Amino acid sequence: MGGPWVMRPLRSRCGRREWKRVSEKPITRERLLRILDGQAAKTAAVIDGLDEATLVQPARDDGWAAREILAHMAWAYEGFLSVGEGRVPGGLDPSTFNLDAFNEERRQQVAHLSVAEVLEWLQSARRRIRECIEQSDEARYGEVVHTPWMGDHLRGQFLVFPALHEGGHRAELERWRAGLEASAHE
What we know:
The chain has helices spanning 29-47, 52-55, 66-84, 99-109, 115-135, 155-184, and strands spanning 10-11, 18-19, 144-147, 151-154. The longest helix has 30 residues, at 155-184. The chain has one domain (10-184): Four Helix Bundle (Hemerythrin (Met), subunit A) (Up-down Bundle). The N and C termini lie far apart (52 Å). The protein is built from six helices and four strands. Strand 3 and strand 4 (151-154) form a beta hairpin. The strands form two sheets. Strands 1-2 form a two-stranded antiparallel ribbon. A two-stranded antiparallel ribbon has the order 3-4. With 186 residues, it is mainly α. Helix 1 runs antiparallel to helix 5, helix 1 (29-47) packs parallel to helix 6 and helix 3 (66-84) runs parallel beside helix 5 (115-135).
């Protein structure tokens, strides 16, 4: 069983929003893995049956394609994993970090990837965080980890954030797919 800690209110230092309380439930290895697996299954269901031509179409008003959103999920897993392991993601300078600029730069860097490559990357990133969770010491989930762009959070939070982040973007993909299906029936 994990420590007696619970998720607490989060405040983003990215300057975009204040995060809401995530959960009152204690975070355990079992719960983290259940959340991770659940999000992966839901994302797979949203894109099931869609071909490459469809997944490279814009899925958001800002022009991001479904493929790019899936790639964003992968690089977010990697970033949160590095913080959970006590490293600065990608050698970023936290004093000048701009989330929107970073995401746009990464979007341009992965533009050449096929949907299959993006999905393999996402699976690989999920495997890496799963391995980290499976090998982690639950007693350390309650340790405070400081990041200049996100503030102080518990180590366990950085292990669950990527799956919750995936859930938020999966919801965007669900709305997009519903729009595609509605258009097909018109």
